[in-house]
Amino acid sequence: MEFLEPAFMQRSLLAAVLVGITAPAVGIYLVQRRQALMGDGIGHVAMTGVGLGFLLNSSPVWMATLVAVAGAVLMELIRAYGKTRGDLALALLFYGGMAGGVMLMSIADGSNANLLSYLFGSLSTVSDADVTAIALLAAFVVLVTVGLRRQLFAVSQDEEFARVTGLPVRALNLLIAVTAAVTVTVAMRVVGLLLVSALMVVPVAAAQQLSKSFRTTFVLAVVIGVGVTLSGTITTYYQDVPPGATIVLLAIGVFIALTVLATPLARRRARAAEAASAECDMAVPGTRPPTDDITV
Amino acid sequence: MSAPVISVRGATAALGSRPVLRGVDLTVNHGEVVALLGANGSGKSTAVRAVIGQVPLTGGAIELFGTEQKRFRDWARVGYVPQRTTAASGVPATIREVVASGRLSRRKLGFLTRTDRAAVERAIELVGLADRAKDSVSALSGGQHQRVLIARALAAEPELLIMDEPMAGVDLASQEILAATLREQVAGGTSVLLVLHELGPLEPLIDRAVVLRDGCVVHDGPPPKAVGQHALPGHDHVHPHAADEPLRTGLLT
């Protein structure tokens, strides 16, 4: 347990746990509404925030949060009100955000190493202030994704039905977007902006291989998330490998392992379903009444 | 007599620049079962979606339980079954989880209470899926998906059920269960507005049929009988009440 001794490792592990919890917790709603790549877009937009932070000499984490939230709200508005060319508007936003970030960073005279640390994550540069920011933001994300799970589930499952139950659907959609943006900035220091989305989506995809319910998927995805961020972080202590890439590859490894594990299970279920339908086929002839009064 | 459950007067609506509703009148009284019929594109789905506030009107008025629809907030009194082919989404969910979201109209915040849970179980039982409540909805057949969607609407214990094509893509066994479920609800005093393509197994339940054609009401009265030649596709259905021109309901087209 010698990896627990250095102060930077304690900070890194704390940040890793928080990311492992929050990324799948909000990612599950994005996957549910089939917007798995939204996190990726927000990550691109957050780059401009990081650049602004450097330029204005303020905290890149807080600046990235502000810009990512603004970008996510804009994306949600485009999704809700946009017409056919919504995908182009989103593309403009993504690449504009990315290019803006790189440009601002170069004006601010930030080094390339600094830029790379935000793009791909760098645990050794996580400061005490970063950890405080990450902890506060993570608390917000957990409060929303767990506290409002019934509401967010309904909105992500069937938006029109949710509106007819009288839920404030527009506000909840914006809340999901804002929470996703906050999560992106929480995860930025650990896995980096380019790989944030993977940590939102891959643990959920892996958990789905085994689970039948939303609740199990949620819990399992968070367990997988924490598992891969922690083991990835510890790996970087012993091996000189980038944390973001390690964590994402581990998550994909878990996905593949669970898929292989689940295949015989799925096959057995399919066989059971087949057997049931065979039974029904035999019962149908003779019992089927005419569907109308037409005499043929 | 109390105000009608649904009252639509002179409703007009457009999708883009195309008028879809051109002055529709539609009333559902307390305890009544009204079928909204018409060919594809006749505006029946739009009419129903206007009633629940999902399509803005360009003219006319809609009242729910005597309250102007824009001011209506008591959504727990309305159970809505949207036109869907599936109850599933991008993440697995059990039948119980999907049906439980129907309780949100009763309890917007906080956790499910014992009353909520009992109502969810009752709704699942009503549609005959009690033994599968813990199963993932993605493992269900088309008809079972529809039963889940109806159970979700019933979970709120509504006084009015609004259903958009509940029989579309539903196998015979499920159709009969749905008809039985509906019969039970109607016996309990629930009012129903349903969009149908053809009357089918629900026919004996229906008190009144409103037929739309090109966004206008062309028939409002007893359900048109689909018998013999009259029920065949493309047949000009001349209703006994219709005075001058033949009525093309397009019921089976």
Automatic annotation (TrEMBL), chain B:
Superkingdom in the source lineage: Bacteria
SUPFAM superfamilies per UniProt: P-loop containing nucleoside triphosphate hydrolases
Domain ABC transporter, chain residue ranges per copy: 6-239
Keyword Phosphoprotein annotated: no
Molecular function, one GO term: ATP binding
Biased composition (Basic and acidic residues): 233-247
One family name in Pfam for this protein: ABC_tran
Ranges where the record places region Disordered: 230-253
Keywords: ATP-binding, Nucleotide-binding, Transport
Xref: PANTHER family: METAL TRANSPORT SYSTEM ATP-BINDING PROTEIN TM_0124-RELATED
Name the record gives this protein: Metal ABC transporter ATP-binding protein
Organism whose genome encodes this protein: Streptomyces lateritius
